[in-house]
Design goal:
The chain is mostly helical. It has 2 domains: 37 residues, no CATH class; 231 residues, Up-down Bundle (Rhomboid-like fold). It contains 11 helices and 2 strands. Strand 1 and strand 2 form a beta hairpin. The longest helix is centred in the middle third of the chain and has 25 residues.
Length: 283
C-alpha cells in the first residue's frame, strides 16, 4: 500500500487520464510529473483531498485535548456553548490570535495557528462537520493542493482582519474585532468564497449559488449568536475568494501547488510550536 510505484501506468493527479508513471508531462493537461514520482497511487488512496480532512480533524482534536489539559481544571462547563471550553490562558499558550496576542504580545504568527484551536466542544464539532462537508468538493474543483492553499490563506486573512479590527476599529453592533479569537471558521468561509468564485468563473450557477447561500446563512447565524467573530468570517471569505481568483480553477493544478500546500501545513504546525515555546514566558 505504501510502496512507491516505479513502472506501469498511473492516473494523472491533475486531470485523471492514464499516463506512464515516469512521464515527464501529461499529454492531456500538460501537468509536469503527473505520476508524482510514483507516489500518485498512494496519495489518491487517501481520497480526493489527499487526506486533508482527516489530518485537520485529527490535529484539531489533539490540540483541543491539549488545551483542555493545559487549562488545569479551569474548564468551562456552564452552558451549551461553553461546554468543555479551555481557559483563555491555555488558548493563548497554543496560539490564539486577536488584538492582544498580535499587537500587545507581538505574536503575529498566531494568524496561522488560531485556525487549529477551538473554544469548546460544540465549536469544534460544528467546524469539523463543515470542513468535512466543504473540503472534498473544493479539492475536486481546484485540486487538493490549491484547496489547502485557499484554506490556509483564508485563515490568515480572517484572523489578520479580526486582530486589526480588535485593535483599531470601533465596535459596531455585532461587528466586533477579536481580542482573543480561535477556530477553523475563517478557513471554512474561505472554502465557501472559493466555491462562489468557481461558480462565477465557470458559469456553474448551482455551485456558486449553493455556496453563497451557505455563506449568507452562516453569516446571519454569526450576527444572531453572541461571541461569534464576524470579522474573521468576512476576512476568511474575502481571502478565500481572492486566493481562488489568483489560482484560477479552470487551469490544471501544478506540482508547485502541492509543494506550496505542504509548506502551508508545515508553517501552521511551526506556528503552533512557536506559540507554545514563546508562550511559556507568560506563565
Amino acid at each position: 500500500m505504501f510502496k512507491r510505484q516505479t513502472t506501469g501506468s498511473v492516473i494523472c493527479s491533475s486531470c485523471g487520464v492514464l499516463v506512464g508513471v515516469n512521464d515527464l508531462q501529461c499529454y492531456n493537461c500538460y501537468r509536469r510529473n503527473p505520476g508524482l514520482w510514483g507516489f500518485a497511487p498512494l496519495l489518491r488512496s487517501l481520497g480526493g483531498d489527499m487526506g486533508f480532512v482527516p489530518f485537520v480533524i485529527g490535529t484539531c482534536v489533539v490540540l483541543f485535548a491539549l488545551t483542555l489539559l493545559a487549562s488545569r481544571g479551569d474548564i468551562g462547563m456552564g452552558g451549551l456553548f461553553t461546554l468543555f471550553s479551555p481557559s483563555r490562558q491555555s488558548l493563548f499558550l497554543f496560539g490564539a490570535s486577536g488584538a492582544i496576542p498580535v499587537f500587545v504580545a507581538d505574536r503575529w504568527w498566531t494568524v496561522l495557528s488560531a485556525s487549529w484551536l477551538h473554544g469548546g466542544a460544540l465549536h469544534i464539532l460544528f467546524n469539523m462537520m463543515w470542513v468535512r462537508q466543504l473540503a472534498p468538493p473544493t479539492a475536486t474543483l481546484y485540486g487538493p493542493g490549491r484547496m489547502v492553499i485557499i484554506y490556509t490563506a483564508a485563515g490568515v486573512a480572517g484572523f489578520a482582519l479580526s486582530s486589526f479590527a480588535g485593535a483599531y476599529l470601533p465596535n459596531i453592533l455585532f461587528l466586533r474585532g477579536g481580542q482573543f479569537t480561535v477556530g477553523a471558521s475563517a478557513s471554512i468561509f474561505g472554502l465557501l468564497g472559493a466555491l462562489v468564485y468557481y461558480g462565477r468563473r465557470s458559469g456553474s450557477r448551482a455551485v456558486g449559488s449553493e455556496a453563497l447561500t451557505y455563506a449568507l446563512m452562516l453569516g446571519v447565524f454569526g450576527f444572531i449568536m453572541p461571541g461569534v467573530d464576524n470579522y474573521a468570517h468576512a476576512g476568511g471569505f474575502g481571502g478565500g475568494y481572492l486566493a481562488a481568483q489568483l489560482l484560477d480553477p479552470l487551469k490544471p493544478e501544478r506540482i508547485d501547488h502541492i509543494a506550496i500546500a505542504v509548506a502551508c501545513l508545515a508553517a501552521s504546525v511551526l506556528a503552533v510550536i512557536a506559540s507554545v515555546l514563546h508562550g511559556f514566558q507568560f506563565f
